[in-house]
Structure formats: C-alpha cells, structure tokens
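Pasting as-is:
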Amino acid sequence: MQAGDPVVGAPMGGTGAQSRSEDEDSLGIKDMKRMASQAFGSGVPKRRSSSRSIKRKKFDDELVESSLVKSSSRVKGPPVIEPIRCSGSEPSSSEKKKVTKSGSALTPPLTMVVNPAPITKRVKKSKQPLHITKDLGRWKPTDDLLLINAVLQTTDLTSVHLGVKFSCRFTLREIKERWYALLYDPVISKLAWQAMRQLHPEAIAAIQSKALFSQPEEALLAKIGSASQPKLDMFQELLYKHPSIFHPSRTPKSLLVHWQLLKQYYLLDDQSVQPLPKGDQVLNFSDAEQMVDDVKLKESRDEVLEHELMISDRHQKREIRQLEQELPRWQVLVDNITGMSMPDFDNQTLAALRGRMVRYLMRSREITLGRATKDKPIDVDLSLEGPAWKISRKQGIIKLKNNGDFFIANEGRRPIYIDGRPVLSGNKWKLNNNSVVEIAGLRFVFLINLELISMIKAEAAKMTQQ
C-alpha cells in the first residue's frame, strides 16, 4: 500500500483545500448578507437614536427643569453599564438585543427626561429677607398707621371704626383683632413695623394729617364762640399755647375747618340743640308738609331789591357809554374793512396799515407790530388779519421821525418784505405812501395821511428856524 499512499493523500489534500475555500466563500456570503441586511434590511434603513434630548433654545421654566434633571440623574439614578466594544469587531444581533433590552430597562424614555413629572422644582434659597407685606393680608402699612394714630387720639375702637376711612371696609371685629395682633403678636407686629418704616415721609405726613380729633382738642375749639368770625391767626395762637394737646400735624387751616364742622352740627359751647318733642307722636315729614301753607311759599315782591337792580343796571349802561366814547382816544384802532374805498383820515390818524380783513390806525408816533398773547399785549395784533403762528410776538416797530418820514424796524426772526425787498432782523427801512408790507404771508398797504404829515413838517421847520 505504500505505492498507493500518494494516491490516497492527494484527494484528501484536495478535499481539505476545497472545504477551506467553501468555508471562505460561506463566510464571505455571510458578510455580504450581513452588510446587505444592515444596508437594505426590510427596505428601511435603521435610524440611530440617542437618549440625549434635542439641543434647542429653552425657555426659563425648561432651563430650571433640565438643570434639576441633570442633578437628579447624577445623584439618584442607578449606574448604567455599557458593553465593551472593540474597534475592529461589530456586535452580533443577540448582543444588540441584550444591549437594547438592558438599555430600555435602565435608561428612561426621552419624554421622561424632557418633562420629568415626579421631580419637584428646587428653588435656590435667596439670602434676602422675605417681602414684609407677604403675611399682612388685607391690612396695608397705611391702614396700620391710621389705626395706631386714631387709637392714640381717641382710645376708642368704636369711634375709630366710625371715623377712619381705611383702604378696605373693615368691620369692628376685624379692627379689634388687628389692634390686638399689633399689641400681642410679635411676628405680625414686627412685620407691620418694618412695613411702616419703609413708607415715604410724604405718605406718613398725609396719614398723620388725617388723624381724628381728640376730646381735649374739640373742647378747646368749642370754646370759640359761634357768633365770632375767627381767622387763621387765632388758631395759630391756639397751637402755640397748647402744643401738648394738639396733634403735631395740626395746622391753622385744619383747625378752622373742624371748628366750622362743630358749628354746623351745633357742638360749640354757646350752642344748644333743640330737643325732640316729648310724647308718643313724633312729627314726621308728611305731617310737616301738611302744616306748611302754600301761600307762604310764593315769592313776595321785594321793592328794595328791584330798586337796587335798577340802579346797578343804570350804572352798567353808563360805563358802557363811557367806553364807547373813549374808543377814538386809543392809539391804535382796528376797523373792519368794507369795500375798497380809500380810508377817511381824521386829525388824529397819522397813517393806516390796511389789510384784507382789518385796518390798523396809527395815532401815535411809534407802534409795535406782532402777535399778542395773554401775558404780553401789543399795539397791532396781526393775528386778527390771518394765521400768525409764524409771526414773532414783537415782529417790528413803525416810527415817525421829526422830518415826517416813517421807518419800520424788524425785531423778529423772520424777514419783513417792503415792496418785495427783504428787511432782515435788526435792520430798518423807510416806508412810503402805498408801500406793500408783507409779514409771514400777510400783506398790508401802508397809507400815510399826507395833510397831517405836511402840517407836522411845517411845525418842525418853524421850530428849527426859531
């Protein structure tokens, strides 16, 4: 059999090589199938998922929740053991299932991470003290100060309930409970005291000015007679003489107002209230209405009053007549222009500034043009002609010199146009007869009384010759 050994060994070696090639082919086919199943398995590519939340802009409440989730997961969450993977090898499908099972059992879902329901919010404790008005309820610091001042003045909680106007409508029981709490409860009294200390001084002064009047104060005020007419000096003297009785916030005016109230309700010492009629039957409104005589309700004719009204009417008419007579004596007159006829100058009118709506008569040697206001009247109010909001309050001055020439000086911001030529601020220009004066869109014609001006020139010439 030695001769046949090579014959037998040859096919065995061939089968070994053939089986090795088949194993390699089978491994290659498996790798190809695995890659195909990974790339095209079930026709849908697998999605890589992560347990981390999606990075996006978070709101304020989500920031707090996410920080709490991180802190809780670091402290309370059980440790997650990840499988060790080699860089050159990939996990098998069974390993993947185990990992996914362990991951699903250990890690919470994404919704639980983003919005953890059972985790309570942790608010960082601030070192600042709590707001002092947190536990005060309906009672404000102003109400506490009003209550304390009123009790110190009257020493009666019933009068405090009737006379003090709080921010809320408190009952007598609530006022008593609050007063006892301020006296005996250290927590509430401390909070109220701190709140009252933070009030503005002006608010404290306003609250103290509303303090009720005490009985000694009303007794001093009641001594002033009802027939007298006291002034503030008398009450100032009372405050000066009795500083220990009156409240520090009292003023002479407040004392006068309270004295008037005492007088109105017949509470002064020299006043007496009429007692109600004694008996079973008390007079009511319907009985008093039946007792009233209708004839007495009719107004009787008062001859003295009618005579006084007639005299006052006569005086008013006389004053109106005097004012009408004084109109021609004014330096500048404003007339409504009707028609286009030339103005009739009198012996007192030197010149006229004629517009579309009004005419200004110049009866003095110097007049001022502009826009009149309540504080500053002016000779020629150009707002009567038209819109004058662009005109200065003192726009210009027209002046007559001794030689009979008229000059206009611009003292406003805007230029004055004389026959189309601008006269800037601070400059002067001569005015001739029929010169066109334009100020901020308002046009006027300057007319001169030539007869009167010639007479003035003649008199000036005589004075120079002498």
